[in-house]
User: Fold this.
Amino acid sequence: MKVFIFLYIVLGLGYLQASEEIDATKSKINIENITNDTSKENMQKWLDNSFGLHPYKANYILPFGIANKTYINRKLELVKYKKYEAELQVSLQLEVYKNLFGLGEKYSLAYTQQAFWQLYVTSSPFRENLYNPEAFVVFPISDKTSIFQMRSVKFALAHKSNGLPDTGDIQEFNGFNLSKSINYFYTTLRLQHTTLITDLTFLAPLPGSANLSDNPDIMKYLGYTKVKFTYFYHKHMLSLMLRGNIDSLRGTFLATYSYPLRRDKSYLYIKFFSGYMESLIDYNQNITKLSIGFSFSR
Assistant:
């Protein structure tokens, strides 16, 4: 398994060279003499890699991560986890419609999957996988006078879960339920001041749903508000996120830094996390963790 992660990194970085070779091969294809418009259109999409899918959140592989405490294996206590692990994230979005109300709004679907990988344990098990589909609409805002100019407002419905079975009634788990999930609504107001982007988010669980039965106190740790700052300086990109619940005095701090490595197709990526909700299975554990690796989008 450790050989696999090495190959994954090599292949991931190697794709930079491979993609250039593929693009060069595609550029030699001539479609000007094709008379069938449908065939010509679809070949052009293939040449342009234009199928509508785009990065949503950062796509990364972080082979080296260290936490301030050893993780607990809640699935099988006999297999001990370590505080060292790898982390992966894949995040894509697809625009499905736009301008329904003539306001320039865009309707999209997105999917993010995050994996916490105990790479340095025998057999290298995945500690947890998180699945996060979303549906959202973004309305643009024309604001040219404010110091912090309003750029857009986003309304979204989302689901987040670890895909594990309900184990609350199974004696071997001593009442601990492996299944963790939440369905929620959120809205984000985006503002911009030159190279500083600020996202203000308000979040609420969907009313009347049973999703909180797996983790009835999760909102104490997730919180109802979030603010994120993204700053660009030349090729550097730094983001800071604060999320919390004033009532419970529990929160999260997340910082990321990225810098392009080669032709802006891959990036050095450093992530620092401190607080709650790093993963769902340990949502009520206060964890501090530093990870480093590569991202393929920002």
Notes: The chain has two domains: 1-51, 52-295. The radius of gyration is 22 Å. The first strand starts at residue 53 and ends at 55. The CA atoms of residues 226 and 243 lie 4 Å apart.
